[in-house]
Recover the amino acids of this structure.
């Protein structure tokens, strides 16, 4: 296998780097400032656009306009829907260079990609453009109190009533539900069908009467997820994506997109580079010797993750949709994130107890300390890693179901 860019890919990579140098707003280039303001969490372009300071809002708008000129907000979308119709490998290069520069991506990739596969032309025209501009801010309504890892057991009901569906029930772990103005989700439309059938994929306005959102605060004092309750929520039947009672297949298309990114691999490598530089310059005697073997292991693992992501890109380029291969990447990346956090905390010793990014003595803005809490959810969200192992075993290795 040749890991080097082809001449065309090298030229495209050079163009992306020049674009980032010229058009990425100064606020997004100031990584130290962003980490301080964002409390060490992932940058949220939509948060900047709608709820940020005037400077953050201006930067978010400037960046969105720059991306729109080239269709790079959602580069895999067709040009007629505001994308760039990039090849899979060009998408890979673009995401890789954006991740290296820590440039924010525009939200809505998952639902947009799913609409392109399963949506009607009217639905594409209605939802894609405002998703690209950030006008529509989406939350995912999949998991329920009794249906998380075993998502097929979901019970939140949607009953057809004329030209509408009436939804009653509860969803759990609704990421960004308190910031979203639209929700996409899976709902039970045929309670008598086998559990993976009788499910439909609906989208709805989060301000519809009967929808209520309650916060869930994580052990890291972060408000990222919520409980969402539906009480006689009436949703137009035109908001059904795909066929009634076949929403499971629509949802799985979305999850395959969710598990197939390169950003995590680049972030792991960047975290290790930062940690190595910090350890080298720290004056604490013998500190490097305490963690050097672990750092080497984490760095090698980050290279493995990079190649798993490259495999997914190669499959897209060959015209096949990754399935268990994407599960391998999701599983490996989320568990690696936890190992990186533990190694980082070990390197800092007692200073790892400092939580606040604003604390002057907190190494690397307390990144690894915060990650030790925030990465816990990664092995659960988007399909738990136990489920990913089942997918790899049955679909990848051909093992029988237990």
């Amino acid at each position: 296998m040749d890991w080097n860019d082809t001449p065309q890919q090298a030229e495209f990579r050079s163009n992306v780097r020049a674009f980032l140098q010229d058009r990425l707003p100064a606020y997004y280039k100031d990584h130290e400032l962003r980490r301080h303001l964002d409390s060490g969490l992932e940058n949220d372009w939509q948060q900047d656009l709608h709820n940020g300071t005037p400077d953050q809002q201006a930067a978010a708008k400037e960046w969105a306009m720059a991306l729109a000129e080239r269709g790079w907000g959602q580069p895999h979308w067709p040009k007629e829907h505001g994308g760039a119709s990039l090849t899979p490998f060009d998408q890979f290069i673009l995401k890789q260079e954006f991740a290296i520069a820590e440039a924010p991506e525009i939200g809505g990739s998952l639902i947009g990609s799913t609409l392109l596969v399963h949506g009607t032309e009217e639905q594409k025209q209605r939802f894609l453009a405002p998703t690209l501009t950030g006008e529509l801010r989406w939350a995912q309504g999949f998991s329920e109190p009794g249906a998380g890892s075993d998502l097929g057991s979901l019970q939140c009901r949607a009953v057809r009533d004329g030209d509408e569906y009436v939804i009653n029930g509860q969803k759990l772990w609704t990421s960004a539900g308190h910031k979203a103005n639209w929700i996409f989700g899976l709902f039970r439309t045929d309670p008598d069908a086998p559990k993976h059938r009788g499910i439909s994929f609906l989208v709805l306005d989060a301000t519809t009467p009967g929808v209520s959102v309650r916060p869930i605060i994580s052990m890291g004092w972060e408000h990222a997820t919520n409980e969402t309750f539906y009480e006689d929520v009436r949703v137009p039947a035109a908001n059904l994506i795909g066929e009634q009672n076949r929403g499971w297949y629509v949802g799985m298309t979305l999850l395959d997109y969710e598990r197939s990114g390169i950003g995590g691999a680049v972030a792991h490598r960047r975290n290790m580079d930062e940690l190595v530089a910090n350890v080298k310059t720290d004056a604490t005697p013998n500190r490097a010797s305490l963690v050097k073997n672990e750092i080497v292991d984490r760095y090698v693992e980050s290279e493995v993750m990079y190649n798993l992501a490259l495999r997914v890109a190669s499959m897209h380029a060959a015209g096949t949709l990754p399935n268990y291969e994407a599960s391998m990447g999701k599983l490996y990346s989320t568990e690696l994130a936890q190992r990186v956090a533990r190694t980082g905390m070990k390197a800092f010793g007692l200073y790892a107890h400092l939580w606040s990014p604003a604390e002057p003595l907190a190494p690397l803005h307390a990144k690894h300390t915060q990650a030790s809490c925030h990465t816990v959810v990664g092995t659960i969200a988007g399909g738990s890693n136990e489920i990913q192992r089942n997918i790899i075993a049955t679909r990848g290795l051909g093992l029988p179901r237990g």
Remarks:
- The longest helix spans residues 287-317.
- Residues 17 and 368 are 28 Å apart (CA to CA).
- The first strand starts at residue 138 and ends at 141.
